[in-house]
Amino acid sequence: MIVYLAILAIQVMLVIDVIRNGRNQLWIMALMFLPGPSTIAYLVIEVYPRLRGNRHVRTARAKAVAAIDPEREVRAARDALDLADTAANRIRLADALTRLGRYGEALPLLREAIERGPADMRTGEKLARALFETGDAAEALATLDRNDPASAQSDRDRQGLLRARILEALGRKEEAMVLYADLVTRLPGEEGRCRYAALLLDQGWDKKARTVLEEVEARMKRLDRQQRAAEADMYRWAIDRLGELRTAR
Questions:
Q1: What CATH architecture applies to the domain 156-249?
Q2: Can you name the CATH fold of 70-147?
Q3: Helices in 21-118 by DSSP H: which ranges?
Q4: Cα angle, residue 230 at apex, residues 233 and 175 outer, rounded to 5°
Q5: Blockwise average pLDDT, block size 10, the chain, 249 residues
Q6: 3-class DSSP state for residue 122?
């Protein structure tokens, strides 16, 4: 009975899809009288091609592939570099390594790419990030300072967040705090707010940190489960700290 109801539900959904998307009405007859073969045929002929062109489906597929085979892009980038030792291919391999958190391996590739010709703003930022992630905050800041200024606000804000993290690591916490306070008014996502709150807590500004974390909590509640899962560790940290602040009240 359950199987029959499931098949019936699928039939109804596909018939609705036929009508809604203006497909050939012969599909309706086929789905009604030949549910098994026609369902498979409709999914392959009509639904699958549409899904392949859907941005969200492509993103989900890319994430699934990355989860199953995280080294896939690294291998492809290495093959491309073996075929043509260019700055672009070195940057591609560095990007693939960076996505896996392997900044130490990415660092020489970025240096060599920059040595081969004028570096654009984004490559300079990648080098600064790799330097910072491998523990050389001072050189990372110097690299950012030498970098060409970004023209787009989103690029400036992304570099600003990196600069704030570097300043914090160098002990220049007041400068970092001012920068965080400005960035959180524009940055998408909650990383900036969480880092700002963490620095406020470190400096004893518990009340102000609580206000920032309550904003993170309120924004988090407007996200669905999948969106929250993408940055689950960060949200967990924020809620744990907020709980501690509320308990200490």
A1: Alpha Horseshoe (1.25)
A2: 1.25.40
A3: 26-33, 35-42, 48-52, 55-68, 72-83, 87-99, 103-115
A4: 60
A5: 66 76 74 74 70 57 64 93 94 95 96 84 94 97 91 93 97 96 91 95 95 94 81 91 88
A6: helix
